Amino acid sequence: MSSFPELGDQFEELAQAAFHTLDEAQFARAVSYGCPEEVVAGQLVFDVGDEDGDLLLVESGEIEVLQGGLDDEPILRAGAGQFVGELNLLTGQTRILRARVVTAGRAHRVPPEQFRLLMAQDAELSDLLLRAFLARRQLLVQRAGRNLEIIADETTGAGLALKTFLIRQDLPHRWVEQGTPEGGAETAAAGLTGADLPAAIMPRVTIPRVDPRTLSHQLGLTYRRTPKGVADLTIVGAGPAGLAAAVYGASEGLETVLLDAVATGGQAAASSRIENYLGFPFGLSGEQLAARAVVQALKFGAHLASPCGVEAMRRSDQGHVLTLVDGTEVETRAVLIATGAAYRNLPLDRWPDFVGAGIYYAATELEARAVAGLPVTVIGGANSAGQAAIYLARHAGHVTLAVRGSDLTTGMSSYLVERIRADPRITVRTSTRVTALAGEHRLEEITLASGPDGEGCGCFGLFCFIGATPATGWLTDVALDEKGFVPTDVQLGDRWTGIGRGPLPFETSVPGVFAAGDVRWSSMKRVAAAVGEGASAVRSVHQALAAK
Fold first, then answer.
1. Are 243 and 294 in contact (CB under 8 A)?
2. For residues 528 and 193, what is the distance between their CA atoms, to the nearest angstrom?
3. How far, in Å, CA of 377 to CA of 394, rounded?
4. Phi, psi of 50 (to 5 degrees)
5. Does the pLDDT value for residue 184 go beyond 70?
6. What does the pLDDT average to over 496-522?
7. Can you tell me the distance from the alpha carbon of 548 to that of 254, in angstroms, rounded to the nearest whole number?
8. Angle ∠(30,31,33) on CA atoms, nearest 5
9. For labelling alongside 369, which of 33, 323, 447, 497 has CA 20 to 30 A away?
10. Which DSSP helix (H) or strand (E) runs through 392?
11. Is 14 helix (H, G, I), strand (E, B) or coil?
């Protein structure tokens, strides 16, 4: 039985998937992976913040799942044939709900190791549980309970970073805008001051001056040692290439770890609409693509951790050791570098001051809300800039597309060029540069120059799509080209350091270390190409590991 009356009839189908009852045969197969235990009325099965990651199967009696936090409201009553658990069983996140026994009976606990076996071995149960977990998470996100409350200003860089992390990780939370009467009341109630913001308030802890890394650690989403201790494959970077490699690596039996310094999705997640990806004729956002890939990787048993930056790599007897920014060491037999590239900036005064407060590197719903009805400028001449301009035109007061080159068709697909030219809400300015920024606490004006002189124009959102530089500063032993990209296989020439064999496809100068996606020298810089490279690199990983 579910308890989501405030969500309305439109959620009936979602609720049906979320609160499924297993039939007799399904339940018998599921409990074969667990251990039975007697439960008594009033027993607290788990609490908010617990690291317990067991799936609970109810044979008899009844278990009630509660919202937790200040609003300790019931969400689910699971009876005979039903189960207790949600997406955190796959992500490794600490419990975000509370569960207690209402009626005494018998339950079966499926611990994490056995749960992963169940998901790998029983396709029917795996699909059923996964659909239920996803539906439950969506319902929890809609409900936005008080077990995670953020007080912050999303128009600032710190606030935007937190909001992006929460959305990318699909974390149920309640956002309270700093500076509003509600924000002031919540800040005072928590015993905080303005200097403590942004802050995260949870049932067990309040975190002042919170950032994504601290929050991720508190929620249990940072790196944890794998059950084997040594991973078969560790992927650095969770863009399309890294996510594809995680899906294929985990599905083919490799103990796979995926690390990202920011959040899953990479630059692709910043795209509001991808229309030329195979199989999606009506397009999909980069955020949707990344979210689906994350679920696939988790389903097959990959271990995902973010924000989780890597600062160094060295060889070891086991293969390689990655050192994380907090000093943690990750032992792994093979490595895939899929770090992509870092956004380029313009060399203008006050640029860092306005990042997240008027300067953006993505054009999604989050950024569009911040500039609704206001004039904005998009800089760049490739597809990502064109997609951003078209998307923002539906939300902003007006969009100026500023291109350094003299011809919009040079770097942009023709279908985008035609749409931009036909849209009266978009003004295209070629041979144009941004030469100055102005504003008090956030961006309010820029200077555009098509010649020696410039003119000021109102701009409350400057969307930067001018390319990127490879994120390879942490690599020391791996050979790079003059621009910092990673050459692989036939591109290496005499830089290959292996003995007894030549480099495999996508293998770098260091044996057992591979590269895929935008970070690789001469890659196509397209989502589909990155996905293909990530998947193909896993085949070479298998060959390299088999040869050891």
1. yes
2. 47
3. 14
4. -65, 145
5. yes
6. 96
7. 15
8. 80
9. 447
10. helix 383-392
11. helix
